[in-house]
Request: fold
Amino acid sequence: MENNEIKQKIFSQSCLAKSASAKLATLSLQEKNKILALIAESLYVNLKEIIFHNEIDVEAAKTAGLSQSLIDRISLDERKISTIVQGVKDIILLDDPIGSLVETLKPATQISVKKVRVPLGVVSMIYEARPGVTVDAAVLCLKSGNAVILKGGSEALNSNRIIAKIIYSAGLNAGMPEGAIQFIDTSDRLAVQELLRLHGLIDLIIPRGSEDFVNYVKNSSLIPVLSHGKGLCHTYVDKDADIDSALKVAFNAKCQRPSVCNAMETLLVHKDVSQDFLTKICNSYEQAGVEIFACQESLKIIKNGKPATEESWSTEYHDLKISIKIVGSVQEAIEHINKYGSHHSDAIITKNEENAKRFANEVDSSAVLINASTRLHDGSVFGLGCEIGISTQKLHARGAMGLKELTTTKYIVEGNGAVRE
Amino acid sequence: MENNEIKQKIFSQSCLAKSASAKLATLSLQEKNKILALIAESLYVNLKEIIFHNEIDVEAAKTAGLSQSLIDRISLDERKISTIVQGVKDIILLDDPIGSLVETLKPATQISVKKVRVPLGVVSMIYEARPGVTVDAAVLCLKSGNAVILKGGSEALNSNRIIAKIIYSAGLNAGMPEGAIQFIDTSDRLAVQELLRLHGLIDLIIPRGSEDFVNYVKNSSLIPVLSHGKGLCHTYVDKDADIDSALKVAFNAKCQRPSVCNAMETLLVHKDVSQDFLTKICNSYEQAGVEIFACQESLKIIKNGKPATEESWSTEYHDLKISIKIVGSVQEAIEHINKYGSHHSDAIITKNEENAKRFANEVDSSAVLINASTRLHDGSVFGLGCEIGISTQKLHARGAMGLKELTTTKYIVEGNGAVRE
Reply:
């Protein structure tokens, strides 16, 4: 397509989405769930067709010499598609985020004022690689009453196209408003640039992909962006910690899945318990193959550590590596976390209620955990049941995000000919 | 000051604010209200000193030949200061927005998860002219547990400086953390540019002033911006309207204070009631000196109207001027409002519950009013009790904003050695 043709096509698709959004906002929970159920069924019925188109993408990726990990992310098989379909069924079970009463105000005059939850309007999901996101994005937006504009990565264009087609057609058959799902059918980079400009038509951009990609979207968009945040998470073992709990939690937070954002990167230990605790935990870490970077004080206890540098405290390893520091007080731990952390998920292990409360109040993070692993800060663990991610920003959404974060509010004022005096 | 000196000073003031914000977050309602009470008292006690410094600004403005309306906005007298002090006392009466439970989640595992309300951290208010904003901004931020960086307009620098000094000193005497209020003591434009860059230190920018000024801040800031939105508000008189109510509300919405954002700009009337209603309302408008721009159909009824153009439907008069259009259905009214409106405040006058519900659901505005004047969409009318404004954005804050919009949330997770399986 020519540049102008791309721009025009994206503009017209965005107009169609905008127009559909008004109808989507008025659908009942039953109507939305009926649409989602038929989408789930249709994806399963057309499983072979999806795999057929997916193989074209996978072959092209191999020919182009793309990395094995990227090819893995693109590839679909019967098991992966079943998991994706199960995800749709899980979203059917969630409460309707739309229409609920957020707040009843107490106005000064004789009117009633209610704040109710409504859809944002049009959401555009811009993502890389994994074709399953095409399904996630479509059903999350439908459930929250939003129209969606899907822009997937070029590596999965054939897979995304057939999935979008199946979803759209099933949706229409189940009563979904026309235009509710728009698929941007091009690999041209211009398409993303164009989407990021269309404020007034698109209400929210959700980027999913590499950190560079998300930063590009954030810095280029004229539309508000909701994105998953980076994680430099801490666990602080207090002087009043239950050492067995501390060992269990500190091991889980580092080792259960080190590559993810809510894994622990830095372990802070109160000096009074450092001898006992560090000896034991570093023994476990050694067995799990964890590489340790430790402060001078803790190196006196840890035999298998390398010296930490100033840089260590700012490093997200996302790997079997850890920074360890001995601190003199809960105060010092809080200051360290607020200075070096990414305001994502930070934990204290203590039986001292006062220290727990102080830590919870003063650590400036989206989630503070008391006697629990940072790995538990997660939408599915929290019962939010879906895959939008964890926000480290403070406006609109903070921490694990659910369907509510795809909504806004509206005041409904009722009077009986009420006027301003 | 040299450029580098300004940059350095602003950076160091922002660091002080950031450091104070951690302490402010932990103050109780009693502690905060004690600070506000002493600030109110001290402003009143130092009334003469404030007026003395204000006169320097007023004289300079006169010498510089600034407009009378600007000089009016800068000028303070005993009555104006009393009103400002009363505003502080009103804010003391508001509930504490901090620490309240927003939501209790239902996690899958044996942990408890609560979402609680916490301060944003550091808020910078950047404003023009009115020195009263120095007080408003400081006390709103204190009440919501935020540190504040004040950057007022150069025309009121002397007034703002003395007010900030009085507030800061009274605050400290009442136990306010050091550094909680930072006053940017320069008229250099560089100061604003510099503030807008300091993400990581400043959490929110609130611009107050002309539309051009607010747009400049929005387009230049690396920090989230919360601002007051423009208003192109509608009233739709349905075929099932109570005509007496409609006359009262349509007159109030246009004439009670035409210069403000929630005044009505366009009146839509169902064709079935247009003859009776338009004859009567235009008679009232004529007596009030309202200039009328009307569609071809309505010009057959209205004797004193000029023809409306396509541009009329997009015009915010903020004056005794109005656009009038006859429509064939509630559907047509909704489509007109969603196309031409600013998503601020839109009203329907009807006794028909179905039409009212449909209008409330389908009009995409921050407030929808049923049988009530658009002028009622206001923080003080709604009982929010303070002066942040009305947002037309959809993320974080929509519609009339209160203290809650100066806050964010935090998840507090409690376990008993809980880990991710």
